[in-house]
Design goal:
By secondary structure, this protein is mainly β. It has one helix at 4-14; strands at 23-25, 34-39, 46-53, 56-57, 60-71, 74-82, 90-97, 102-112, 115-124. The strands form two sheets. Strands 1, 4, 5, 6, 8 and 9 form a six-stranded mixed sheet that branches. A three-stranded antiparallel sheet has the order 2-3-7, with no helix packed on it. The protein is globular and about 60 Å long. The termini are far apart.
């Protein structure tokens, strides 16, 4: 009896947790994704990554983008960009080095609350492609 309230609290919190992670889908122009990688004006040996994505996918709103930068396979930077509900599109812009060993990954996730329904992943290799 002494731990009944603790057990009820834990069970209620667990019931709101996601059991299954987001479904990964390949981003395509037919789905409304526009990906561009071009020379950046910010530095000589950098690429600017620009991704326009639909505001909603399967009636779920665009929530956020996670931008990860790696050097020789090791994570060196990670940033999260949340999308405003008032904007027409969910747009992501990032800059990454084109030096040997650098690569990146941008994950755009759709859903609400703790559970994301869909994830679209863009990635670039060490040579900026």
């Amino acid at each position: 009896m002494k731990y009944l309230s603790l057990m009820l609290l834990l069970i209620s919190n667990i019931s709101f947790a996601c059991i299954v992670g987001p479904l990964s889908i390949e981003p395509k122009p037919e789905l409304g994704f526009n990906f561009k990688e071009e020379q950046s004006d910010q530095c000589r040996n950098c690429s600017m990554i620009s991704i326009d994505s639909p505001k909603e996918y399967d009636s779920r709103p665009a929530s956020h983008a996670i931008f990860s930068v790696f050097k020789n396979g090791e994570l060196v930077s990670k940033a999260v960009t949340s999308f405003e509900e008032e904007s027409k599109n969910a747009e992501f812009v990032g800059i990454v080095s084109k030096e040997k060993g650098f690569s990146y990954e941008v994950s755009i996730e759709y859903g609400t609350g703790l559970c994301m329904g869909y994830k679209f992943v863009f990635s670039g290799s060490e040579n900026g492609s």
